[in-house]
Amino acid sequence: MSPFLSDLIPDILCRLPVKTLLRFKCVSKSWCSLIDDPHFAKLHLDHSLKTSSNVKLFLDNCIECDDKAYAVDFDSLHNLVQFPRPFIAEITKYRSRVIGSCNGLLAVYHREGGIALWNPSTRKCRYLPPLDDDIISDHDAFPGYHYDKNTVLGFGYDETSNDFKVVQMQRSKTQNCYKVLLYSLKANSWKRIQDCPYEFPTNYNDGAYINNSLHWVGDEIGEFYGGKVIFALNLATEKYYDVPEGDTSFKMKKCGGDCPYFGYMNAGVLGGRLCVSRDYSTCPVEDHINVWVMKEYGVKESWTELFYLSRDEWLTNIFHTRAVAYSRNGDKVLLDEGGGRQPAWFNLENETGETLSIVGAPQLVSTMIYVESLVSV
């Protein structure tokens, strides 16, 4: 084979789906070595992210005890596939749930089984080592269901050190704080970092990863305002910082009320930008939320209202609603309640909703976007 053709092979192969590449490993030893190479995995991932290709919608069964996970092509919502989950589901035990997606890897949490980093495309999985006994003994694992207020989680990629990291915050039963543990995939170990300087009034969402940081909403310790602060933990420096808020004093254009009080329900990522849901359940005119996006990260003036949802008019529970992704042409946003209801499309132009329906999938699912990759765990 000529050198010219050899040079073209990686560029051609990086455009193919992971399933095809895994099959092509049987072509020859050189192809197998190329596809297994971490540098090729990065080339393939970079191409997928640049072209928005190989994007999947992960479907997590919220109600039934199910050992399987499901995914579809995000653009078409067709080609349903199912595969075994990292943790076995038992009727009498807690179910696992996905706490984050980054570069093709999913982080899966099970209260009794621990945490696993999982590549659903290659079916490879790494189970994280358990926490130290002194951390576990100082944590009250109160009964709960899908989310536990006493355990706060997040998953992201530290670009500075080229390392995947998991954050697990545990509410201390002896101190008024959350103890924070940071896991490094490179080191395959946990370490204790600075306690979280905030309280979590609600915990319906895990950390939102953007700008090398994980983001949550909270309150100052000892105060309860229902989530007045947007804050982040930088995965490289391991320092916390506040994210500037947008205008909170304006009069809502649709409800017509002054809305003197609000709290942030959650932080998320939409179209590569930080987004938040603002709760106005105390509005004297209409119980509603607004979803805002930060068009330029860190710039207060770039916060822009994206849409408004009324509790009476919307298809699902707006208090748990999170924005998942824009449609391919950007005219709709997929919204997910996180459990117990069906996700739905919100049409940005006419402000109508349409329940998501996928043939063969469980009826009630929580959804998450991930990109297929060859990234190894």
From TrEMBL:
Residues 4-43 form the F-box domain. InterPro entries: F-box-assoc_dom_typ1, F-box-assoc_interact_dom, F-box-like_dom_sf, F-box_dom, Gal_Oxase/kelch_b-propeller, SCF_F-box_component. The lineage of its organism: Eukaryota, Viridiplantae, Streptophyta, Embryophyta, Tracheophyta. CDD domains: F-box_AtFBW1-like (cd22157). It comes from the Eukaryota. This is CONSTITUTIVE EXPRESSER OF PR GENES 1, CONSTITUTIVE EXPRESSER OF PR GENES 30.
